[in-house]
Each structure stands twice: as C-alpha cells, then as structure tokens.
Amino acid sequence: MLEKFLDKTEFTSYDDFMANFKVKVPENFNFGYDVVDAWAEKTPEKEALLWTNDKGEVRHFTFADIKRESDKTASFFQSLGIGRGDRVMLILKRHYQFWFSIIALHKLGATVIPATHLLTPKDIKYRCEMADIKAIVCAGDKVIVDHIEKALPQCPTVKAVVSTGPVVPEGWYDFNSSIEKAAPFHRPEFANTNDDVSLLYFTSGTTGEPKMVAHDFTYPLGHIITASYWHNLSEDSLHLTLADTGWGKAVWGKLYGQWIAGADVFVYDFDKFEPVDVLHMIQNYNITSLCAPPTIFRFLIREDLTKFNLSTLKYCTIAGEALNPSVFDEWKKLTGIKLMEGFGQTETTLTVATYPWCEPKPGSMGLKGPEYDIDLVDDNDDPVEDGVHGEIVVRLNPAKKPLGLFKEYLNDPDLTEEAMHDGLYHTGDVAWRDEDGYYWFVGRKDDVIKSSGYRIGPFEVESALMTHPAVVECAITGVPDEVRGQVVKATVVLAADYKGKEGPELIKDIQNHVKRVTAPYKYPRIVEFVEELPKTISGKIRRAAIRKD
C-alpha cells in the first residue's frame, strides 16, 4: 500500500529520508475507499483490528470485515440523512464500533468529531452549538447516555442519537441492530474533495474554551510518517497505542498510518487503567510495537517486568508530553528497548521525532521531519541560534500546505490569523535545538519562567523533580517576586511513603536534589504539596489554575 502513495518507501539514513520522502496525494482522496477498501480487495483476509476488553471478549476483524461493517454503517447513516459535510460526534471510548463509524463517515464525505466520554452536559451543549452537530453516536453507558439526554433539549441541530447499548433510551437508535437492518450501501456519486473537512477536534486548551481544529481529507496521508517511519511498522506488526478514541492520539496510533502501512491495530478496551493488564496484553497477544505517553511508562517500570514474557515487543515510541530522561533509562535497563520520542499537536501530524536511523537522546523530542519546515524563533519571529530558547514554528509555503497541518480554527478567522501569519504557523511551544539538530522541549510559551534574567522552562525542572523518590507528579510555575521578577514554584503530589512527611526538611531535600540534578538557579524556591494537580479534560496540567491559587 505504501507504494501507492510513495515513490520510495525504504530509506538508508535520516539524510536519505529527508531528501527523498515524498507523498503522492490522489485527487479527492478518501481513506475509506482508497485505503480500507483497497486492502479489502487486495488481501481481504489480512487482519486489520484485534480487539479485546477487560471482560475477556475478543474480536478479530480483517480488512474485508472492516469494509463490510463500515458499508453497513454508512448505509444506516445515510438513512438518517447524513451526507457530505454533515457533522457527527462520536463518543465511543475504545469500542470497535468507532472504527466502523469513522470509516463510514469518511465514505459519506461527512465530518467526524471524536469526543471523550468524560464530557459533561455543558460540554456536549457547547460542542453542538459551536459545530452544528447533526447526530451523536455513543457508547451506551448510563453516564454517557444521561449526559447526552440532559444536553439534548439545548441542542436543536441534533436530529439523531445512536447508542451501542446496553442503554438505548426511547427515541434513540440501537447501533448494532440498525446496521444489521441497513439496506445495501450505495457509494455516493461524489463524496468529497481533498479540501473538505473530514475531522474536527475540540482542543482542550489550558485556558479558555476549546477551539475547533479542522483537518481536511488528506490528513491521514500525513500519518504515513507517524506509522511507517516513527512507529517503524510493517505489514507484520501488531501495534498498540494506548489512547481513547476521543483524543487526537487515537487516529495517530490506532487508524490512519497504521492501516496505510498494513499493520494490525491492537485495541484493549478498558474502563480502569492497570499497568499489569497492559503487560499481560503484550505477553498474551504477542504485541510487537507500543506507543504511550511517559506517564504510562512511569507506571510500567514500577511493575516487576521479570514476571512477563515481553520478547515479542521490539519497538516503543512515546509522545503526548515531554519524556523525563529517568524514564528512558529505566525502561531501557528493564527491557533493552529505547524509547523513541515524537512531537506534534492536534493541529499537526508528527513534526519532530526520533526516527529509526537516529540514536535517541533521552529527553529530546528528536529531529525535524520532511513534511514540515520547522524552526525556532524569538518574540520578533527572528530565528534563534542553537542552544537558545525559541518558539517552535512551521515555515509555510504559500504554494503548498504541509501535509497534515490543519486548515483553520473553524469559524474563528481571528484565532486562525493569530496562529498562522507572516508565513509562519506558531505552535505556542518553546524548545531549544542542539548542535546535532535535536530539539529539546522547554514548555508552553506562556509557561516559561523569567527569573533574574534567566529563562527557565517548566519541563526541565519537572524532569529533575521527578527523579526524587518522594515525587509522583509535579508542576512547575512562576510566581511574582519583587526582586527576581518571578521565582520557581513546585506543586508536588507525594508518593504514598512520603505522605505525612510534608515540612521544611522534605522541602529542603527536594530543593537540594534539584540543585544537584540541574542548574542550581532553576531550583524551586517555593514548594507546595497537594493531593492532586488541576488538569484539563484531556489530562494536561492546568498551570494557569495553579498560578491563580
């Protein structure tokens, strides 16, 4: 399948990759027809999805199965009046019906809005108002259904609600029985252009209301790099990305690039994360590749890995938040596998990564990729030298949008202009670049602390703090100071063994530890202990909320 979109698929080095990676973008590309149905025609019995849940149920789906089920789902959606440009919200957790639904909606030229099951009625109302949502398809859990029911009277654009069960309220459609009764699917005469909006994500910013990030139908092709050249997948791979389908990371790791590469996607559908369960999945199903945020690896390395046979696991990637070097070192010591970090945003595909030809530097995001012209700039948009903090930007070519970069913040031209102007897309993230071209994450632009003339990134201090045995989780913020402008404050969640030991002695020990691990001027002059950190709905630490306290 890669040959369909790339002239050259094998690369001998990073330089070869940068010089010769080129994607051929078909006219009116549609992932449902051009990838899923193409695999179903070429190798119908090839497994596409291996799904299991915490109740022990297991389902195997070939590409022929995915084509058949997505066609039935598309026909059912057609019966609801859903077609090109209509917006449908999917709240499907890790249920396999998500894959049927998103492929079906692509085939119809509709716009998919993935959403988390953690949405409140207020969140649902906001999304329906902002996006003129026509239908909602959800997992039939009582809490999810109840929240939708409470929101519906204030969501006049919603014409149909669908549940996978077991809870299916009166007036709702039962997903499973409805697709079985659907008429034979007739492909629309014209489903989409490349420029149509296929995906709409509500980003959970750390301040303000969520923005609507619009991606066009070519977006999946931007994830060829994600799967084939960062996850390092092939047709023989069984890949697990730990992400709920409500987040952008799901299509990064559980769908687009993986199926273009012909890999088998492993899905573990659970309600409560248990590190031991993930290790059992790797062992019992012979998973070959794993991608997860650093938090997951922090939990995994606390388990006794000698109790598990992880011999099939060959490759691990890490993203979602910056990687603490201590996690890299411990995972490699326990498994022999290097964690290959990557960086991107809801607005982009993979922009910076550690590729198979590159030696990882623990804590570095890696090197820029061939699809994005990445640079670092100062407050005047002038490039900064190696070793100097700067905002990560994408240099834009007026003749060709980078494949995978979002179209716009829907219905918000001012916000779009604020992010994309003067030939640059501003990510809002700050990093520095070393002499080898590796990028090192510093923090969000608004979170960088300016103290006594120093610019201090929250992440570098958090990384130092995380190596102290008392610290389970932490957040670094700047607080006003008359002498220094700002001073560093650490808000810390303590490990169980240290609870009850809060006091001047522990604070001093933590401060001295940071001085030893990183540059002494970065140490937190204020240390506060809390039971938990405030977070957004997507799990990001809300530093703005901490600064207000």
Key terms:
549 residues, alpha/beta, five-stranded parallel sheet, 19 helices, 27 strands
Report a brief summary of the structure:
The chain has 549 residues and is an alpha/beta fold.
Structure description:
This protein has about 550 residues and is α/β, with parallel strands linked by helices. The protein has 19 helices and 27 strands. It is globular, with a radius of gyration of 23 Å. The relative contact order is 0.09. The mean pLDDT is about 95.
The rounded Rg comes to: 23 Å
Mean pLDDT comes to 94
CA-CA gap between termini: 53 Å
What percent strand? Answer: 25-35%
Question: How many β strands by DSSP?
Answer: 27
Characterize the overall form.
Answer: globular
Share of residues in helices? 25-40%
Low-confidence stretches: none
**Major β-sheet annotation:** 9 strands, mixed
Strand order of the largest sheet: 2-1-11-10-12-13-14-15-16
The number of distinct helices, counting runs of at least 4 residues, comes to 19
Structural class category = alpha/beta
Detail the topology: elements first, then pairings.
Layout: H1 2-5, H2 14-20, H3 31-42, E1 47-53, E2 58-62, H4 63-79, E3 87-91, H5 97-108, E4 111-114, H6 121-131, E5 135-140, H7 142-151, E6 160-166, E7 173-174, H8 175-181, E8 197-203, E9 211-216, H9 219-222, H10 224-230, E10 238-241, H11 248-253, H12 256-260, E11 264-269, H13 275-285, E12 289-292, H14 294-300, E13 315-318, H15 325-335, E14 339-344, E15 350-353, E16 367-368, E17 373-377, E18 390-395, E19 408-409, H16 413-419, E20 420-421, E21 424-433, E22 439-444, E23 449-451, E24 454-456, H17 458-465, E25 471-481, E26 485-494, H18 504-517, E27 526-530, H19 543-548
Parallel strand pairs: 1-11, 3-4, 3-5, 5-6, 6-7, 10-11, 10-12, 12-13, 13-14, 26-27
Antiparallel strand pairs: 1-2, 8-9, 9-19, 14-15, 15-16, 17-18, 18-21, 20-21, 21-22, 23-24, 25-26
